[in-house]
Design a protein that fits this description.
With 322 residues, the chain is of the alpha+beta class. Helix content is 24%, strand content 27%. It contains eight helices and 18 strands. It has a seven-stranded mixed beta sheet. A seven-stranded mixed beta sheet has the order 11-12-13-14-16-17-18. A two-stranded antiparallel ribbon has the order 3-5. Helix 3 links the parallel strand 7 and strand 8. The protein is globular, with a radius of gyration of 19 Å. The two termini are 27 Å apart.
Length: 322
């Protein structure tokens, strides 16, 4: 999507497509659970759709859902600045100056008998440019029924769109859907408001029996996945720290969007942030922490596969991809 209307559509989805939910209901008996479909093809380790890597002893895979393109017109990036200011930063980094490209890549992690998925991509929310998670999962050798846990960073359409299929049924019928309690409270209010989107209401109805909420700092998979507070982009936005032994990776969600602008100009406003001031403060603080610690980062919207580190270069910061 490379025209202004596409960018405005993306902004509308980010602000309006949400995921109200509630605490998980009593777990159904094992006999009532849908059968687990098993992938039959050997998984690809690296291709245009998947990129396999390790987090300590854990197997991880970047899954390409698609790409999004936003014009450099200050409607989304560099709000309150000028296209010339944004273009100067982009050009200095060797990037096109008229458009900003964003990846969309959920993360898959295997640990023991659990298959963990971090966000679910756009589904049908972003047109033909995204919604390819199913194809990438197949390339990774994973069937939807094998996914046991889904960790939602926040409820914008390019992160929750893949929770249901084209018929509105659960895309991952055996998975627990985990989302922060703060995000859930806000989203439930939005979902029940007068004039709420019918598609949103249908999504909520589909996933409600599968949802479990948490608070910041919670150990969601003991010793492996911990929720990290990252509010600002939305009221309950969460990052996730994935740990194996002495190795860790921080899944940052939408704490940052573009590998140049978000990192080199974190003080600039992005229209996707619900609270611009809080989003700016959180982004600057997180970048500083990551530059200081050297912790590996998984950035869902950076160029595929979105894996790398934040490093200090001169007086500023830069994204260094693996």
């Amino acid at each position: 999507m490379r025209i202004r209307t596409a960018a405005l559509s993306l902004l509308a989805v980010a602000l309006a497509t949400t995921l109200p939910a509630c605490n998980r209901q009593d777990t159904p008996a094992a006999s009532s659970a849908p059968p687990v479909e098993t992938a039959t093809e050997a998984p690809a380790t690296t291709s245009d759709a998947v990129h396999a890597f390790a987090i300590g002893s854990l197997q991880a895979t970047a899954l390409r859902d698609g790409t999004l393109s936003v014009p450099n017109d200050n409607a989304v990036f560099g709000v309150g600045r000028t296209p010339e200011e944004v273009a100067e930063v982009l050009a200095a980094a060797g990037q096109p100056s008229d458009v900003l490209h964003l990846g969309v890549q959920p993360l898959l992690v295997r640990t023991g008998d659990r298959v963990l998925l971090f966000d679910t991509g756009a589904g049908r929310n972003m047109g033909d440019g995204a919604g390819k998670l199913g194809e990438s999962l197949a390339a990774a050798g994973v069937a939807p029924g094998e996914v046991t846990d889904i960790f939602i960073s926040h409820a914008h359409g390019d992160h929750v769109g893949g929770l249901v299929d084209a018929q509105g049924a659960l895309a991952f019928p055996n998975a627990t859907v985990r989302i922060s309690a703060q995000e859930w409270d806000d989203l439930r209010t939005r979902g029940t408001a007068e004039g709420a989107d019918p598609a949103q209401a249908a999504l909520v109805a589909a996933i409600t029996p599968k949802v479990e909420t948490f608070t910041a700092g919670a150990e969601l998979v003991p010793g492996v996945v911990q929720a990290v507070e990252a509010t600002g982009h939305t009221v309950g936005h969460a990052a996730y720290r994935i740990t194996s032994g002495s190795d860790s990776l921080l899944y940052v969600g939408d704490s940052m969007h573009h590998h140049v602008i978000s990192v080199q100009r974190p003080e600039w406003t992005i229209a996707f942030d619900r609270d611009a001031d809080a989003g700016r403060e959180r982004r600057q603080a997180l970048l500083g922490q990551l530059a200081g610690s050297g912790e590996r980062v998984y950035a869902v919207h950076f160029p595929f596969p979105g894996l790398g580190r934040i490093e200090r270069q001169g007086e500023g910061l830069a994204w260094v991809a693996e």
